[in-house]
Amino acid sequence: MTAIDAPELRRRTRELLAAHPPATTGRTDFLRARFDAGLAWVHYPAGLGGLDAPRSLQPVVDAELAAAGAPDNDPRRIGIGLGMAAPTILGFGTDEQKRRFLRPLWVGEEVWCQLFSEPGAGSDLAALGTRAVREEADGEWIVDGQKVWTSSAHVARWAILIARTDPDLPKHRGISYFICDMTDPGVEVRPLRQITGEAEFNEVFLTGVRIPDSRRLGPVGAGWKVARTTLMNERVSIGGSRIPREGGMIGPVARTWRERPELRSHDLHQRLLTLWVEAEVARLAGERLRQQLVAGQPGPEGSGMKLAFARLNQEISGLEVELLGEDGLLYSDWTMRRPDLVDFTGRDAGYRYLRSKGNSIEGGTSEVLLNIVAERVLGLPAEPRNDKDVAWKDLSR
User: Fold this and answer.
1) Residue-wise pLDDT tens digits, 293-312
2) Is the pTM of this model over 0.85?
3) 131: three-class secondary structure by DSSP
4) Catalytic residue, candidates 234, 278, 287, 383
5) Residue 20 contacts by C-beta under 8 Å, 6 or more apart in sequence?
């Protein structure tokens, strides 16, 4: 078998481009062909969009395709599928589940959302109360409960869902993990209007939703272990995404500083320099984290990156509003709408300032992530917990 190295990847990519010229091939057809050629995510197994190649070689493919003007799969629109559902399905799914879900997920034909947080179980996710009860007759699971803060639920076809399957066990051990069809009867999605005026988040009500056992990921009762894989990947995808220098929130502030010298002051200059350096450090740390992923699964370092992402976004957007003076008080559009994607840095300064407030909540609150860094990275003593061996049904709520 030919070794998969950079020259071999270039050869295969050029073969793909020759057989499916981007100028004359439909976007979806091209993306399907790219997946089938193993050039979607090269580190995935052969037959599942990859070639069992090192993760570090993906940029070789991406550069060739970008130079040829090939379409991408709009990763911001399908970020939950790419960053959370796909690695979880790869790690815990059956062969049939991998074949069914990974291709349309990567191509963008099916959007995913995440049914984890609940009104009474946000920061303490393992305390969730959504129930899944298995019917003896046909083995289906009947799910009832409520989820909240669900990004893109209004456009999603599938959801990754955790539910309590055994209330007699301690909270972490009585959870199972499912794939939920968002078009099934009993799934109701309601918008949650945010401080920005729009509703990218939703609350989801599940009433008698029937999920076949074939859409369970991992063993019954092992849902917390599966969910931890999702959560670690989520934090990496939020806090450790690849961006160029002056990408992200620091870019608009730096441009405003250069283009509008009349807004400058000594104090703002010092603050901008400090935040620019911190943003660059975070960017390079994220690059190192992605290189570490080549050797295995993401670890708690992703929590540190997500912490830095939230703090920097909030401080930088605050500086931008202050730098703009009176213009920083303007807000362009308060129209209620339900966008197809999550946009942390889009629109104007007012939007960025308001949207960044959610960065310290979504993907794990900053308080929870500080605990993870303290215990799993720094090795500090864990906080006392008196509910670890208590049945979930006996916990006070």
Assistant:
1) 655 555 667 778 888 889 99
2) yes
3) strand
4) 234
5) 29, 30, 33, 34
